[in-house]
Specification:
Order of helices and strands: HHHHHEHEHEEEHEEHHHHHHHHH
Number of helices: 17
Number of strands: 7
Shape: globular
Oligomer: single chain
Length: 405
């Protein structure tokens, strides 16, 4: 089996130490060879810079002061962004969704399961609502100075830089067909069973654990087969499993759900992977997962980065692998590409909802713009990314996503 690069290996040891509350065990010879600037850059591209920098403290003397000071300045910006996101979420709870049924998903809800929640790099504030309340809540958000930025069948995004609120009508990653119906039935009481919690001094409603686990895993596969899964999402899963692995809901609710929709093998592999490389205890149900497959998935995560930030070809190749994980991995590259382009048309050109007659003209225009960007080097060629799409799909096929026997 191949090995990770020294930078990747050290990064994983630091990340494991931070999320487990231990000191990273790095051999003396490897400490001397470590490129700390590369560690900082990789942690940023994986959206885990706060946790990794936290674990670096015992090795501060090993790091050039110039590199350390610049790294520290970057981390301060990360904490600053977190404070903005927390403030936006407080406003969401106290003013926008006051008296409403809602639940914050991902983000700070995932941070609740970390030993040090403040070290979870935050992005947007994603929250789930009752669809019938979307107009009222949208109006309240607009009144707070946000602008309507984009939307699709799953959510509407509102932006007031640097914060963004994503109002979800359903959770991401729900598959098409009967399996999607099973997930929706399972999640149907999410808002009713949402729990009020306090994280980083901020009170808000979040899904109960057995709903939260389903949200995390569906979200992970959704990103993995599209633009790419990063270490931040993996840490969310690792911290959740570690904190809840002895709870009854795994056997009573969550694992039966995964088996019924074809995500059980995926759950086992991702959990065993977290045990191998992030050093969390491995629950009995995941211990038999193939270690070579775990290694290859971990390698894929390390090479792609958060939302494909390390490899710019990831997003384009993802359009050929699956339709954001909704249809599994059995459709052809051409089918997936055509569906991805079709579904994104209404996001890129909102006018189509009012004037659908413009669709063919804007579709052709979009293709011409794409060709121009490829020629000028601003976009990756589909032909050049087909090989990567085939490689990734061959790997993900082994996870048997949404396949039931």
């Amino acid at each position: 089996m191949e090995k990770f690069s020294l930078t990747q290996e050290v990064l994983l040891k630091l990340l494991s130490a931070s999320i487990n509350g231990t000191k990273a065990k790095i051999e003396e010879d490897k400490l001397k060879q470590t490129d700390w600037k590369a560690i900082g850059l990789l942690s940023s591209r994986q959206a885990v810079s706060l946790a990794v920098f936290d674990a670096v403290t015992p090795y501060k003397k090993q790091i050039d002061s110039y590199i350390y000071d610049n790294w520290y300045a970057h981390v301060l910006k990360g904490f600053s962004k977190n404070s903005v996101i927390v403030a936006a979420q407080k406003q969401l709870n106290d003013e926008i969704c006051e008296g409403e049924n809602y639940a914050v998903i991902k983000g700070i809800s995932a941070a609740k399961y970390y030993l040090k929640p403040e070290l979870r790099n935050l992005g947007d504030v994603d929250f789930l609502i009752d669809t019938g309340k979307s107009d009222d809540i949208s109006q309240k958000i607009l009144e707070k100075g946000y602008e309507r930025h984009s939307e699709n069948d799953c959510h509407i995004c509102f932006v007031k830089r640097p914060a963004a609120l994503e109002m979800h009508f359903e959770i991401p990653g729900i598959p098409y067909g009967e399996k999607g119906d099973i997930v929706r039935a399972y999640m149907s009481d999410t808002l009713e069973k949402a729990q009020m919690v306090a994280v980083m001094g901020n009170e808000f409603k979040m899904p109960c654990p057995h709903h939260h686990g389903a949200i995390l895993l569906l979200h992970m596969q959704h990103h993995m087969v599209s633009e790419g899964l990063g270490l931040r999402h993996l840490c969310d899963w690792a911290c959740f499993v570690r904190a809840t692995m002895d709870d009854d809901f795994w056997d009573e609710k969550l694992l039966p759900l995964f088996k019924s929709i074809g995500l059980y093998k995926y759950a086992c592999v991702m959990t065993k992977l977290c045990s191998l490389y992030l050093e969390i205890p491995c629950p009995a149900w995941a211990k038999d997962a193939d270690e070579s497959l775990c290694y290859n998935i971990m390698k894929d995560i390390l090479e792609g980065g958060n939302f494909g930030r390390i490899d710019s070809k990831r997003q384009t190749s993802g359009m050929m692998i699956s339709e954001h994980g909704k249809g599994g991995l059995k459709k052809s590259k051409i089918y997936n590409l055509a569906r991805a382009l079709h579904n994104s048309m209404y996001t890129i050109y909102p006018i189509l909802k009012k004037a659908p007659i413009l669709y063919p003209f804007l579709y052709v225009w979009r293709i011409l713009v794409y060709i121009f960007k490829v020629i000028t080097g601003k976009r990756n060629s589909l032909i050049k990314t087909m090989g990567l799409a085939d490689e990734r799909r061959s790997l993900y096929d082994q996870l048997e996503i949404f396949e039931t026997k």
